[in-house]
Specification:
single chain; about 80% helix
Length: about 150
Amino acid sequence: MMTEPGGEGATPGANAQALEDHRKIRELTGRLAQAPSLLELLRRLQELRALMAPHFREEEAPGGFFEIVSTQASRHLGAVRQLEQEHAALLSEIDGVAERARACLMGPVAEILKQAKALVRRIESHESRENELLIDALYVDVGGGD
């Protein structure tokens, strides 16, 4: 937890919230890295973005993390500016990965799924015709070669 000289700056509650947000972000990014499918990746990206966008706004807001660090430890001003610039880039990157995943699902993956469904229909038709032939040969034509 951050402490500020003279007790000014962020409240302990705000510090605790920032640390809790960082814990949740670490948890979500770990889950994101382990996404077993594109659909799950998209769901996890949406969840991560929904947490990160307001978290970044709070850090950038007056009285937020960046202002507190800049005010209390001006030697970190360069690092604060760099981190602040990364916020927009990170959100944009999340959006880009999600967009490419959606495009893949709507394009190549959708086409493969369409082809798989067509294959299933052909196999089902094939098997059905074999069954009909077997039934006809064994039960309808039984008994004679008239």
